[in-house]
Amino acid sequence: MTENHLATSHLGAFDYDPAPESASIARLRDAYGLFIDGDFTDAASHASFASVNPATGADLANVAQANSPDVDRAVAAARHAYDTVWSKTTGAQRAKYLFRIARLIQERSRELAVVETLDNGKPIRESRDIDVPLAAAHFFYYAGWADKLEHAGYGANPRPVGVAGQIIPWNFPLLMAAWKLAPALAAGNTCVLKPAETTPLSALILAEILQQAELPAGVVNILTGDGATGAALVEHPGVDKIAFTGSTEVGRLIQRRVAGSAKRLTLELGGKGANIVFDDAPIDEMIEGIIDGIFFNQGHVCCAGSRLLVQETIADEVLRRLVRRVEQLRVGDPLDKNTDVGAINSAAQLAKITELVAAGEAEGATRYSSSCELPSAGYWFAPTVFANVSSSHRIAREEIFGPVLSVLTFRTPDEAVAKANDTNYGLACGVWSEKGSRTLWVAERLRAGVIWANTYNRFDPTSPFGGVRESGFGREGGRHGLEAYLDV
Amino acid sequence: MSTYLRVVSDADVGVRLADPARPPSIASETQLRSVLASLAGVDAVGAEARAAKLATRSIKTASKRPALDTIISMIDLTTLEGADTPERVASMCDKARRPDPHDPSTPSVAAVCVYPDLVAGAKSRLVGSSVAVAAVATAFPSGRASLAVKLLDVADAVAAGADEIDMVIDRGAFLSGRLGQVFDEIVSVKSACGTAHLKVILETGELVTYDNVRRASWLAMLAGADFIKTSTGKVSVAATAPVALVMLEAVRDFAESTGRLVGVKVAGGIRSAKDAIRYLVIVNETAGSAWMRPELFRFGASSLLNDVLMQRLRQTRGVYVRPEEFSAD
User: Fold this and answer.
1) Catalytic member of B229, B275, B307, B329
2) What CATH number is given to the structural domain containing B219?
3) Is residue A193 within a helix (H) or strand (E), and if so which, with residue range?
4) Residues of A forming the active site
5) If you measure CA to CA, which chain A residue comes closest to B15?
C-alpha cells in the first residue's frame, strides 16, 4: 500500500491568489454631465475633464467642468425646488425619500464599491465594508429624524436654512456626500453638492440613484469641477449655507470669502491625531488599532492617528510589533479583495507625501518602510513608520495625509496630554489603556472633537464628528449634525 | 520610489529570541501568578473585529487547492461517542489513511482521536501509515477526577500505544484561582506521557473571557504543553475565530520569549472547508507560516473531512459531488 506522506503536500505555503472584483461591475459611462434640476446636462462651456484611476493612471470617464453660469443654474434650481416643493414637503414625506435613497444605495452597493475603488484607489474591502454601508446608514439614520425635528432639542418647530452649498473631499467621496446630503435633506434644505475634482464618479452614480428614488427635481444638484467651481459656489449670493470638508488651507479661504455675508458655515478640516498608548494597553488589539488608525484608506483620513505617542516603557516592544505588522500589509491592486492598502489618490498627493517623508529623513527620524513591491503604474507609497520623531519635526506637526506614521514617546500621563495637544489641529485622538480611570482623565484633557478609547477610526451615523481649533467647527452625524442645517 | 525603500527586518529593530536553552522555569505559584498577571489584557471588541476582518480574505482557486490539502493533513479525525465500536474506529482509521480512495494524491490526515480503550485497535489498524493515534484522557471531557485517576487514564492510553494525549484542564481550579493545581496537573500528565505529545484542552467555552484564554494558554505552555487546544467539543461554545486568534497570539509571543514553538488545535463545530480556510488565514497572519503545518496546527473534527474532500473534487472535476460519494466515517 502506498502512503501519502505530508512531505508530498504543499504545506507551509499559503499565498493568496489575486481575488479581484470585476471592474466591469462599475458600468461607467464614457461621459457624465452636470446633475442640475433632476437631469444630467452639459456644462455651459461644454468643457470637461477626465477622472483618473490612481492605481493605473488610466482615464475612467469624462465629467463636465462646471463654471459660474452652471453654478447659477444649479443654485437657481435648488432655490426653486426649495420654494415650491421641498419646503412644503412634510417630514414624513422627506423621510420616505431618504429611506428610498438608503435602500437604493444598498441595492447598488457592489457597483458603488467598485466605482469608489476605481476612482479613489482605496481597497475594495474598505469601500465594500465601510464606505458604502456607512453611506446607506447615514441616509437611514437621518430619515428617522426628518419627522421628529421638534424633538431634536432645537425648539418647537425648527426651520431649515434654505439652499446649502456643500463641498466634499476626495478621501471618502460617497460617504462624505451622504454625510452632507442626508442631514440637509432631513432638515428640509435643498443642496448643491460639489464632489472633489479627482473623485467625482460615485457622486454621479448617487445622482442616478436620486433619479431612481424620484427625488423632486432640483432638491439635490451635483456639480463636478475644480477649485474654481467650489469658489463660485462659496461666493454665490443665492446660497444660505456652506458646508466644507477638506484642507485647513482651503477652509481658511472659504471662511474669508463668506465673512460679512449672511451665509452660515461649517468646516471639517485637517488633523494630526494623536494615538496615545499606555503600557497597560491591550497590546495586540492596540497594534491593530494603530495600523487602522494610520493605514486605513492609505492614511487619507482627516482624523488619522498619524502621531503615535507611546509610553517609554513599552516603546521598543510596540515599535518592533508595529514594524512586523506593517511588513504584513498587503499593498497593491485596490480591486483585489485581499488588498489592505491601495493607491495614493493623485500625483499631487503623492508628491506631498514624498516631500514630507524626505523632510522626516533629513530631520533625523528613523524610517521603516514596508519592503512590499509597488506597482509600476499609478501612484503608490509604501506604508511607512518613523521612529525617534520629536515634536518639532515637520512630520510631527504637518498633516501628511498619507500612509506615514510618526512615533514619539512620553513618560507620564501629563506629558502624553501635553504632547497630544501640542498641535494646531484638534480633530481626533485615541487613548489605549485597560485602566478606565486613566482613559477618562486623559480624555478630559485632550483638545479634540473626537476621542476614541481602545479603538480608532470607528464611525457611526449616530455619533457626532467634527473638530476644534484648526480642524474646523460644526458637527456631522447624530442629533448634533442637524444643527448645521436648521435655522437655530 | 524604490530609492526610499528600506527592507524592514527583525534585525532592524533589535528582535532577539530568548535563549531556547533557558526557558522560563516556574518555581512557585506566586511566580506563576505574577507571570500570568503581567500578560497584556485582551480587548474583546478589538479581538472580535480583527477575527472578523481576517474572515473577509478571499481564497480562490489556485490558492484554495493547497489550502484544502493542508487542512486535510492537519485534521485529527475524531470520534468520541459512548456508542463508538471497534469496527467504526477501524473504518475511520482506513479513512484517515486514505481519505479519498479514488485519488491517491490526497494526503492522509494527521491523526485519529479516540477514547483510550480504542487506542490499541486504532494503532494496529494504522500500522505502516503516517497517521498518529491520539487519545483523550484525564477524565475527559469534564476532568472531574482525582489526579491519580487522571494519571492512570493517561498511562493506560500511552501503554496502548497512543502517540498523542489530549488532556483537559481542571476549569474549576483555574476559575477559582487555584492556578498552581492546574499547573502541577499538566506537569504530572506531561511526565506520564513519556514520549507522547501532550495537547492541553483549555475548554475555552467555560473560561468565557479572552483574558482567561490568554492566561490559560500561557499557563499550559509554561507547564510543558506541546499543543494548546480550544475545546472538548462537548460544551456548546467550542472553537471560535477570536479564541483561536488569542491562542495563536499566545504561541507566537511564547515562542518569541522562550524559543519554543507550541502548537494550536481548534476543535468543535468546524464542519465546512470554508470555516477551516478562515482558521488557516488566522494562523497565517497571526502566528505566521511556521505554524502552517500539522506539527503546529490541527483541526479536531469529524464531518469537516468530507466537506474538504467535496471541495477538493470540485477543484479537480469542476463539479460538486453528492456527499454520499464519501463514507460517513
Assistant:
1) B229
2) 3.20.20.70
3) strand A190-194
4) 268, 302
5) A320
Burial zone of A156 (CB within 10 Å; 0-12 exposed, 13-18 middle, 19+ buried)? exposed
Q: Is the Cβ–Cβ distance between B46 and A282 less than 8 Å?
A: yes
**Lookup: cell for B134:** 491520539
Q: Which residue of A has its CA nearest to B47?
A: A285
The residue among B2, B3, B4 with the most chain A CBs within 10 A of its CB, best to mutate, is B4
Active-site annotation holds for B166: yes
Minimum Cα–Cα distance from A10: chain B residue: B66
Give the relative orientation of helices B210-222 and B29-37 as an angle to the nearest 10 degrees: 140
Q: Which of residues 416-445 of A touch B (CB under 8 A)?
A: 434
Let me know if residue B223 belongs to a domain. yes
Average pLDDT over residues A237-262: 97
Q: How many CA atoms lie within 13 A of A188 on its CB side?
A: 23
Of B8, B57, B280, the CB nearest to A370: B8
CB-CB under 8 Å, A6 with B293: yes
Judge whether B139 lies within some domain. Answer: yes
Which residues neighbour A114 within 8 Å (Cβ) at sequence distance 6 or greater? A21, A22, A23, A25, A26, A124, A127, A335
* Cell numbers describing residue B11: 534585525
Sequence-ordered alpha helix ranges (H) in B194-272:
204-207, 210-222, 241-258
> Quick one: average pLDDT of B63-85?
96
Residues of B in contact with A324 (CB under 8 A): 10
Q: How far is A353 from chain B (nearest CA, A)?
A: 11
Q: In sequence order, what are the residues at sequence separation of 6 or more whose Cβ sits closer than 8 angstroms to the Cβ of residue B63?
A: A14, A15, A16, A17
Q: How far apart are CA B300 and CA B168, in angstroms?
A: 14
- Please indicate whether, in this complex, the C-beta atoms of B105 and A11 are within 8 angstroms of each other: no
Q: Which residues constitute the domain of residue B115?
A: 44-323
Each residue of A211-248: pLDDT tens digit? 999 999 999 999 999 999 999 999 999 999 999 999 99
Q: For residue B328, is it within any domain?
A: no
- Å between A368 CA and nearest CA of chain B: 6
Asked if residue B111 belongs to a domain, the reply is yes
Number of domains in chain B: 1
Tell me, what's the pLDDT at B16?
Answer: 36
Residue B182 has pLDDT above 90, yes or no: yes
**If you average pLDDT over residues A431-446, what whole number do you get?**
98
